[in-house]
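Hey, why these numbers?
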Amino acid sequence: QVQLVESGGGLVQPGGSLRLSCAASGVTFSTYAMRWYRQSPGIQRELVAAVSSGGFTLYGDSVKGRFTISTDNNKNTLFLQMNNLKPEDTGVYYCNALSDWDHARVYWGQGTQVTVSS
């Protein structure tokens, strides 16, 4: 059974930092692409960052240079380091896993709220 559990969200002032975590069970990072999505009020869910099973990373244009996606394969945990946060980064952040071999195998976490406000 696959389970993705996000943590690390909260309220932070503009310019601040947060580190999100996604504890994964039932998936192996060597055969899954792992992604972070963001759902902001009134905006369609958007891809924030992704890391392939081979370690290739990509970022949404709005977060390039500020966010870093990484994994700890020993702990089966996905991270998103977010620096220089802006009010427009506010939203619910979701962890996502997509199987390399079967794209019907896609899983979502429950989300963690990030609010950037002074």
Q: What stands out?
A: The CA atoms of residues 29 and 53 lie 6 Å apart. The first strand starts at residue 3 and ends at 7. The mean pLDDT is 96.
